[in-house]
Amino acid sequence: MSHIAIVGAGIGGLAAAVKLAALGHRVEVFEGSSFVGGKCRTESIGGYSFDLGPSLFTLPAVYRDLFLKTGKPLEEELELLALDPAFEYRFADGATFVYRGSRGALTESITDAFGATAAHQWQRLLDRGGEMWRVSREPFIQSPIAPLRSMMRRKGVLRDTRIIAPHRTLRSLGRSIVSEPHLRMLIDRYATYTGSDPRKAPSALLTIPYIETTFGAWHIKGGVGSLSLALARRAETLGVTMHLSTEVRTIETSSNAVSGVRLTNGDFYPAEIVISNADATHTFNALLDAPRQAAKLAKAPPSLSGFVLLLGLRGRTPGLGHNTVLFPTDYDAEFDALFGSSPRLIDDPTIYICSPDDAAMRPHADSESWFVLINTPGTTFVDWNNHETVERYKDHVIDLIEQRGMTVRDRIEVCEVRTPADFERENRAPGGGIYGKAGNSRTAALSRTQNGTHIRGLYSVGGSVHPGGGLPMVGIGAEIVCKAIGPADSEVRTTSS
Ligand SMILES: Cc1cc2nc3c(=O)[nH]c(=O)nc-3n(C[C@H](O)[C@H](O)[C@H](O)COP(=O)(O)OP(=O)(O)OC[C@H]3O[C@@H](n4cnc5c(N)ncnc54)[C@H](O)[C@@H]3O)c2cc1C
Question: Max CA-CA distance within the chain?
Fold first, then answer.
């Protein structure tokens, strides 16, 4: 049995804690804030409940597997609700399109909106995403990043490389398959799922629509943040000690091996293994003295951040489904503003509205709780502590929604904002970045920070490290780390990567 300290009770830290406790280790989690879940959290305000981070749950198999292997199945802990339609997309030219939850129904709805050729092309796009998923899942996503040389020696590498098309961007491959202009905007949007620019992000992000369509888009009753609470419950059942409001100041090492964690109050907790769930930049800059990694991380720009409006509204909006995206007139102008040399806010952004039809998230049937997300630059580029900027942008976003035919102002019972400055402060996310570093290069996946480190016994999990951000990837990353550590009766294995 090893004594394992985990820095951070985000989804990655919690998932690793559950698994490692089930493998027989003694696990302690140190979380700086007063709540578990990090970005994945549901908050109640004035009788309304809002997800503050993830509002869409995909690839639930990752967490089904974790819950099943460590006790009762996920479905006995949480109620998962399949979303069909998954999304409604509304375009600036008045076109609308409902993204259905099964491939047959989807073909019908694309045919109705944009014609049979467009539907056929979208199926081809999903097939390509599926092929990419099959060849990349086991060797790249569910495994530690291997050195390029050994990857190139893998059997079938030429065929797999042709499928993944590492030389192409999401936009260039997507547009070579799909010619319908509205559907092209949809392809671009998948880059923003990783905080990236479709004109630079890798084509392998075509796996996202494949996963969403094939394995479903899900809501969790009561809010997606319930996943964090369920993981924390499972961890505690398995004997994990959870220290909340307990900030780690340093990860201590001796002879290039971890020796424990030192808290901001000076207390020292010895540990043979330390897993950092903090953002990689924070881990290597602040918790450790690791200038080489810190310098490498400093070169990559942070991912997108977000401006969030939480709206508790009286009454119901006619025709509003669970997930609605209001596309702008000029999508490229938004990408230019977000990813140009001096990122800035724009007047006509894409607006995502999540209005769960979930009785557990609103005070009564005749009300709605909206989570509204706009992609924005983080705190490096916009002064999000400036009250006037925040208020002006809030009013502007409400105006934009009203211009698209939905009444908001007259119905408001709760109206709060969360800005990149809040993400930075509350989740210790550098710059307020939602997904760590932006994946704005075709080889981004291979240059991500690894889960193992150069220090013996030190590992990293979470959205800023391999295999990336979002709930499924973070859960897979935790699994990689737990595999590397192994069960309590095996010797502590270390990584040299
Ligand atoms: C607005 C928004 C919308 C999103 N939408 C989706 C979505 O729809 N679907 C999806 O799958 N994903 C979504 N994501 C991404 C998803 O939330 C993240 O990828 C995931 O939750 C990150 O988990 P993590 O393990 O990296 O931990 P984090 O959430 O980053 O948590 C890290 C934890 O470590 C703690 N910590 C850091 N340093 C210390 C320290 N020194 N001492 C003690 N504790 C420390 C922090 O306080 C924090 O609690 C969204 C994120 C945001 C912000």
Answer: 66
> Which is higher by pLDDT, 47 or 145?
47
Which ligand 1 atom lies nearest to the CA of residue 429?
30
pLDDT number for residue 160: 84
Same domain, 205 and 129: yes
Interval between CA 53 and ligand 1 midpoint (Å): 8
Of 106, 86, 92, 87, whose CA–CA distance to 182 is shortest? 92
Distance of alpha carbon 269 from alpha carbon 430, whole angstroms: 25
The answer to the question of residue 491 being in a domain is: no
pLDDT in tens, 335-357: 999 999 999 999 999 999 999 99
Tell me, in angstroms, the distance from the centre of ligand 1 to residue 117's CA: 40
Q: Which residue from 126, 123, 156 is spatially nearest to 139, judged by alpha carbons? A: 156
| Cβ-contact 261, 250 below 8 angstroms | yes
**What is the CB < 6 Å shell around ligand 1?**
7-13, 30-33, 38-40, 53-56, 247-248, 277-278, 282, 287, 306, 308, 373, 423, 427-429, 434-435, 462-463, 469-471, 474
CB atoms within 10 A of CB 285: 19
Task: Tell me, in angstroms, the distance from the centre of ligand 1 to residue 279's CA.
Answer: 9
Task: Tell me which of 183, 213, 243 is where a domain ends.
Answer: 213
Total domains present in the chain: 3
- 254 lies in the same domain as 178: no
Q: How confident is the model at residue 494 (pLDDT cuts 50, 70, 90)?
A: very low
Evaluate whether residue 442 is within a structural domain: no
Domain boundary among 213, 246, 275: 213
- The ligand 1 atom nearest the CA atom of 58: 11
Q: Are 85 and 101 in contact (CB under 8 A)?
A: yes
Let me know: does 251 contact 261? Beta carbons within 8 Å: yes
Q: Which residue is associated with the tokens 């990336």?
A: 468
pTM above 0.90, yes or no: yes
Domain of residue 237, CATH code: 3.50.50.60
Clarify whether residues 160 and 191 are in a common domain.
Answer: yes
Query: Are 413 and 315 contained in the same domain?
Result: yes
pLDDT in tens, 235-282: 999 999 999 999 999 999 999 999 999 999 999 999 999 999 999 989
Would residue 65 count as lying in a domain?
A: yes
Full residue range of the structural domain in which residue 175 is found: 106-213
The percentage of residues in the chain with a pLDDT greater than 70, rounded to a whole number, is: 94
